[in-house]
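pls design
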């Protein structure tokens, strides 16, 4: 991707001046249990105006997390929509609290950051156990099994950059199902039994009028 194309994506050059940015996007990365959400809360304390958004929020109802793999794609689109709205309204920093194992998973956020002239920062928890599968299995709150975390660790893309994310491509659906980290959250993470899926209506439950403050999120009027 040449410099002219990068400039088309919001005027960002290889070494843009900080004064040219309208805000900051922080993309948190890390395996389940590595300390991402703790880091997000710390960043929120340091910057009270920060907006913390997680795809996990889609699956929280009445304070309870119930993962439904059939709605994962919708959950990601819902979180991306919230991030886009936050940037359009000038909120900063916008913090995305997702695992972001692969570069392509962050591409929609980086693209919207370019469109809104937001600085892009990638950040991982600085915890000594962030790649220790045994400790991650013990610590993660969504009961992701050890085998899944090991798989995610093997797929984790290190040293991502602004450019590598923009150049990344989303794999086909079948490929994601066979090896993607998001698909495997259904392999042991606490999930709702299939008969209950039709009763929960996630789209209705998670409208723009619903505040999500469990991770420092924001109400619809932000």
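designed seq:
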């Amino acid at each position: 991707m040449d410099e002219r194309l990068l400039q088309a994506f919001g005027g960002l050059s290889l070494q843009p001046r900080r004064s040219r940015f309208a805000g900051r996007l922080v993309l948190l990365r890390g395996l389940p249990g590595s300390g991402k959400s703790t880091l997000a809360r710390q960043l929120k304390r340091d910057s009270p105006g920060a907006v913390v958004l997680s795809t996990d929020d889609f699956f929280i109802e009445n304070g309870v997390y119930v993962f439904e793999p059939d709605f994962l794609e919708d959950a990601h689109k819902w979180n991306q929509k919230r991030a886009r709205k936050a940037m359009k309204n000038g909120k900063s920093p916008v913090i995305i609290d997702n695992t972001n194992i692969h570069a392509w998973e962050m591409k929609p956020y980086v693209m919207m950051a370019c469109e809104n002239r937001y600085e892009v920062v990638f950040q991982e928890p600085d915890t000594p156990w962030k790649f220790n599968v045994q400790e991650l299995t013990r610590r993660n709150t969504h009961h992701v099994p050890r085998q899944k975390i090991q798989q995610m660790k093997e797929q984790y893309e290190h040293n991502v950059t602004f450019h590598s994310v923009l150049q990344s491509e989303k794999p086909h659906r079948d490929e994601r199902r066979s090896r993607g980290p998001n698909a495997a959250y259904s392999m042991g993470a606490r999930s709702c039994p299939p008969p209950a899926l039709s009763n929960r209506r996630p789209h209705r439950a998670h409208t723009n009028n619903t505040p999500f403050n469990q991770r420092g999120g924001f109400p619809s009027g932000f």
